[in-house]
Amino acid sequence: MKLRVKFAKSGAMRFIGHLDVMRYFQKAIRRAGIDIAYSEGFSPHQIMSFAAPLGVGLESRGEYFDMEVRSYTTLEEVKAGLNRVMVEGMEVLNVTALGEGEKNAMASVAVAAYTVRFREGYEPDFDWAGAMEAFYAQPSIPVTKKTKKSEVLLDLKPAIYSLEVEREEDGIPVVHMQVDASSSGNIKPGLVMEAFLRGQGRELPDFALLVTREETFTNIGTAEEPVLVPLDAAGIRKGQEGGRIGEWNLPDAAGIRTE
Amino acid sequence: MRKLALSDEILLKVEKPARYIGNEVNSVMKDKRKVEVRMAMCFPDVYEIGMSHLGIQILYDMFNRFEDVWCERVYSPWVDLDKIMRDGRIPLFGLESQEPVKDLDILAVTIQYEMCYTNILQVLDLAQIPLRAGERTWEHPIVIGGGPCTYNPEPVAEFFDVFYIGEGETRYRDFLDLYKEARREGVSRREFLRRAAKLPGMYVPSFYRAEYKEDGTILAVRPTEEGIPAKIKKEIEMDVSDTYYPQKPVVPFIKVTQDRVVLEIQRGCIRGCRFCQAGQIYRPVRERDVGMLKEYALKMLRNTGHEEISLSSLSSSDYSKLPELIDFLIEECRERKVNISLPSLRIDAFSLDVMRKVQDVKKSSLTFAPEAGSQRLRDTINKGLTEDAILKGAAMAFEGGWTRVKLYFMLGLPTETEEDIRGIGDLCNKIAAVFFETVPKDRRVNGKVQIVASTSFFVPKPFTPFQWARMCTKEEFLDKAYLTRTAIHSQLNQKSIKYNWHEADVSVLEGVFARGDRKVAEVIRKAYEKGCIFDAWSEYFRNDAWMEAFEECAVDVGFYTTRERGMDEVFPWDFLDCGVTKEFLAREWEKAVAGEVSPNCRVQCQGCGAGQFGGGVCFEERDGEGA
Fold first, then answer.
1. pLDDT at B165 over 60
2. Which of B255, B278, B359, B556 sits CB 3.0–4.6 Å from B364 for a disulfide?
3. Greatest C-alpha distance within chain A
4. What is the mean pLDDT of chain B?
5. Residue A8 maps to which CATH number?
6. Are residues A50 and A137 in the same domain?
7. Which residue range(s) make up the domain with A146?
8. Which helix (H) or strand (E) holds B339?
9. Among the three residues A50, A82, A106, which one is the final residue of a domain in this structure?
10. Which H or E run includes B184?
11. In sequence order, what are the beta bridge partners of B577?
């Protein structure tokens, strides 16, 4: 039986890297007494699959991992059990059961939704909200993406599934974007912001952005006509107690997008 | 939500920001308005090393069980953050509250090895606490030191207000009450320290004066006032089964050196190896009740979620209930998929059987610590291990499928000759030969045996029979290492043997600090001012800066290391009493030179003096005789 765990990471936990988050949950699962399945062999390990790695410094309200369990009582109890052993800044938001043959969390990831703010003192010195929307309206957005080995020229446009700028109550603009998060085409929100500022003849300084990952989606449509749903709505076994479709709350900017 | 002491910008810039954010599972948060004493426990090295230390976990748990106390943790900021904090004048903070250490009442520093001395100064300096105790006021925390290096605290005495000599479980409650009382009464800091100096086990250096003879050796270390004790006896917890031990140790986010549940099964060691300080200062051996250990093992595994448990002691094979404990752990850990790690086991039929059950034979290696290459020298250092036992153990292990052997030796031991050193090569060769004799060709995995011999340089330590011994110079050490290498290379099976040795500079410094006096403090301060920190890390150790510091302070390295010491010399640490008498140590020194062995505590009491504590191995029923 596979369970999919959705969790949030905030506060000081932003500084815990992906591998350490994995180790953290391995220990948390033991503390919670969850009847997790182990691999065979001399040093058995817990059977888990984490969705998309989150960069150090980012908050998230939409992280996922799958775990194979031998048994469990109810999904609510698994969630409550894990939350009893969490530290401040880590919270389990949802636990759902996956149907047989569902793709694991890592293979399911297609798109992630982010909100991006400029840190205080790092805001661009022009009215950038309107310019950002014009930037997104361009038919193509060529950028060079630096990898460890080389630089590749690519078009950001098809990798951005949606982008809008919203003014919060205090008038500060916030960018909501949905971008490719698949293992082959993952885009960091910083790359989009950097391309935007470059187009304005400006550079994006280090540490300028405050980024929150709001949700991670899988694509249940096709490449041409994507239908994006949050990972915890993907493989739900119908009739299973817990997680019915419709229970999940979509964040404001994250919607099912088909155009 | 807690506000972090460091900004996002800094935390994203430094290596492993998780070192500085606290918030770990089982770390203790309290309401600072509801406690009377705030303190921090410090291990003056990087987080991953400090978090692996059992002593701090024990004391952190003990202090936080006191309702009126909140104890936090603090470690040395790594070099990258060190620079940022200096440049930005950011005060060092406790991991829990993220508030400056300088605003706390007490800073307790564990001093585990000599090469962390400059890191103590780093911690004080970054905390914005004056380095010299004499310059502190009530504006600053009381700085108290503990741990093995306090058995000769003199080289760092001027940096500490108090040293706690011995095991922490017994006197801290009294110390804290005395502190609360002094603050309530509004007495001076000096008066508080005067009262503290009268508590058993407490050494307040500012109430003692060291007088020297013309030749530079100690005449006496004497109290400066009436009522201050002339001799300070170590504190010891005699009931190790009914005392403080954590059930919820702190679980770090990042990988640390000791990333597992640690179960301390006993304190002390019956063996009496003559080079070993731990074997003397933790006497007598006290075993923990096996029922307590079983209970704590399960609780700690449940409360941490660790996937590994390790037994800790100086010589686990000597724990009398070891088979019962291991059977229990194997049973429980199999169920929970927890690994068991068993360091410091003597290689014999029992331990090989156990190791086969808990380890993957193909991936693990055997470890022997003969410490010396010849039987003569092993007798001199009172290392009970014989060549016969090593070869038999190796043969059994090879039969069982092991192919890797690690051997540890020391170079520069008292009375060592070239023949003893060549013995290291011979012993390695014989072990390889045993492999080829025991394992037929068709059963040899990869066709090979791997023997790794490592040597360290011998540093004489206080409160050991070798405290009188002359230490080698750097050049002598290196000659010995080259000779070892040549001896190994000339062996028939040399292709199966790998040899590792270390640089000698650090050992020389360790030698100065181990048996140093108060005159050495100035050198440590000077080296720190020249930028020396993390001396235990070879990439940051700067021998040239240290040598300059010795020169500028006109302190002679050889006086502390290579000088021959007479039997009547007064040592800087003689005013401390670790329970073992100087007479016993002198007897052992004479027996060492004569090449005579002493039986271990369970075979025959040697009258070391530890019997005065009224318990432990000294009062066990022995076979055929009463206690």
1. yes
2. B359
3. 61
4. 95
5. 3.30.70.580
6. no
7. 109-218
8. strand B339-341
9. A106
10. helix B172-185
11. B233
Interface of A with B in 188-207 (CB under 8 A): 206-207
Domain count, chain A: 2
How many other CB atoms sit within 10 Å of the CB of residue B418?
A: 11
Question: In this structure, are residues B64 and B71 in contact, taking their beta carbons and an 8 Å threshold?
Answer: yes
**pTM given for the model:** 0.94
For chain A, first and last CA: distance in Å?
A: 35
In angstroms, rounded to a whole number, what is the distance separating the alpha carbons of residues B142 and B613?
30
Per-residue pLDDT of B76-115, as tens digits, reads 999 999 999 999 999 999 999 999 999 999 999 999 999 9
Residue with tokens 């090295």: B45
* Closest Cβ–Cβ partner in A27, A38, A44 for B304: A27
Residues B110-146: tens digit of each pLDDT? 999 999 999 999 999 999 999 999 999 999 999 999 9
Measure the CA dihedral B279/B280/B285/B286, to 10°. -110
Token pair of B116, please?
Answer: 């962390």
Q: Is residue A249 part of a domain?
A: no
Condensed to tens digits (0 to 9), the pLDDT of residues A70-87 reads 999 999 999 999 999 999
Q: Residue for token digits 């059963």? A: B443
- CATH number, domain at A135? 3.30.70
Q: Are residues A48 and A140 in the same domain?
A: no
What confidence category does residue A237 fall into, taking pLDDT thresholds of 50, 70 and 90?
A: very low
- Whether residue A257 lies inside any domain: the answer is no
Chain A nearest C-alpha distance from B245 (Å): 19
Chain B: which residues have CB within 8 Å of chain A?
Answer: 1-2, 4, 8-9, 11-12, 17-18, 21-25, 251, 253-255, 301-307, 336-337, 339, 360, 363
Q: Are residues A8 and A76 in the same domain?
A: yes
Instruction: Give B151's contacts (C-beta < 8 A, 6+ positions apart).
Output: B165, B234, B277, B281, B462, B463, B573, B576, B578
Structural domain contains residue A242: no
